[in-house]
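Why does residue order matter? Because the sequence determines the fold. Keep that principle in mind as you read this record.
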Amino acid sequence: MQIPVEGQSPRDRAIERIAQEIAIAERDRVPTSRQKLSQLVTLNLAIAPAEASKIVDEYCDEKAPGVPQYLQAEFESPFLKVMAIVNSILGMASLWYGAHLWRLQKVSWHWFVLGAIFVGAAGYSWFKTIQQEIAKG
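Structure:
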C-alpha cells in the first residue's frame, strides 16, 4: 500500500484508492463493483457521489473493464425475500381454494399439492436469504 503524497489532488488519491481496492479484490478473489468502489471513494475521500462515480467509471473503462456496474449479490437477497413473500401468498391462496373446493365436495387434491409446492418454494427462498446474511458476516 502506497503512502499518499501531500501534494496529490483528490482525484489522484481516488484513482490510487480505486486501483488498490481492485488489486485487493483480485488478490482475495472477492467480487467488487463500480457502485461499491464509488461508495468507498465517497466515504473515505469525501468526494461527492456524482464525482466519485464519474472517476470510478473513467478508471474502470480505461484500466479495468471487467468490473461490473452492480453485483448480483447486491440485489439477490431482496429478490429472494420478495419471491418468498409472493410464493407464500400464492401457496396460502392455493391451500385456501383447495379447502373451499373440499368443503363443496369437489376434487381438490391438486390445489393442496400446488399450495404445498408454493409454500415449500417460499421456505426455500427465505432459507437461502438467511444463508446469504450469515455468509456476509
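The chain has two domains: 10-63, 72-136.
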